[in-house]
Amino acid sequence: xxxxxxxxxxxxxxxxxxxxxxxxxxxxxxxxxxxxxxxxxxxxxxxxxxxxxxxxxxxxxxxxxxxxxxxxxxxxxxxxxxxxxxxxxxxxxxxxxxxxxxxxxxxxxxxxxxxxxxxxxxxxxxxxxxxxxxxxxxxxxxxxxxxxxxxxxxxxxxxxxxxxxxxxxxxxxxxxxxxxxxxxxxxxxxxxxxxxxxxxxxxxxxxxxxxxxxxxxxxxxxxxxxxxxxxxxxxxxxxxxxxxxxxxxxxxxxxxxxxxxxxxxxxxxxxxxxxxxxxxxxxxxxxxxxxxxxxxxxxxxxxxxxxxxxxxxxxxxxxxxxxxxxxxxxxxxxxxxxxxxxxxxxxxxxxxxxxxxxxxxxxxxxxxxxxxxxxxxxxxxxxxxxxxxxxxxxxxxxxxxxxxxxxxxxxxxx
Length: 414
What we know:
By secondary structure, this protein is α+β, with helices and mostly antiparallel strands. The protein has helices at 61-69, 109-119, 141-155, 230-249, 261-264, 276-284, 290-329, 340-353, 360-383, 389-412; strands spanning 3-8, 26-29, 36-39, 48-54, 73-75, 80-82, 91-98, 126-134, 163-168, 176-182, 196-200, 218-222.
């Protein structure tokens, strides 16, 4: 059973210069980090990151809680106040979700994280897991809150973790949620359990193994599997599925994919870098940052790659149709040597024949379009000194090589 407690609301031209595509893409801000992106319409951002809060790295779970909540918090472990150092206006909602066996007092985030600190005696202890997810700006606050609650309940609370989440939205179209999770399990009475334990090492037959000095070999194992690397992938994919389900329920057409561009099989676009809070703050003030400049360069390269890729596809598709036109006119041993002027004429004839069942007005309109396209095609071929089908195919292959080279060089600089 879930027990949740809130602290209150707080047109690119084709290969022949023929405009067959959509308008040029506009630049928009990515949710939460100020990075730039290209799109023709607003789309949800699939950004998600995970980290462990560790004393060994000078980090504090109470300091993180203060920053995310926008309120000062007192750390009993460090005997000092932790301040948010940021505007509380960005914090829309703070909530603690408890498993059924957790003490009710942990509904207060300050009490919760002081209890977590008290359970850790090591100076380099890991105290919490922190996550950041961009939220679909296409959803309302209520819909996003329901999305976060359902996701956290299923993925974390039902497995025994205490979840403290912080919903941020400054009204700039970049809503996101910070999630803090406990790392220790609890017993039925709400007492923190050890993170790991020593057990006897066993061989393949299930027998205990002796060490060279005669004692039984023991190994350290985690008491819960929450820290296994597999969950990073599981949580990302489940978060994508949860967002898409929420978008579908809201009647939205947008969808997200948490996989990397490489894993999605996207080859005509380079990934951008996460700016982080410092660079994002500079960019919002109109001050260029190193990562912001890198992302702007990436966008320029992506636009060039998209144009090249479209050119390659356009030429390839048109080349296939030209060869079909050649085969309809006559069978020749080497179609690549066939003059493009004859091929264009045959191609236009093929287009005309395909409109035999159309009415007269449609036939005349199609003929005018074909004539315009033919003039543009002839101009393109003449400007590039392409006179045979083979030369056009070679040009297409060279364009593809140029595309691959630019992409490889840009990726190598990352």
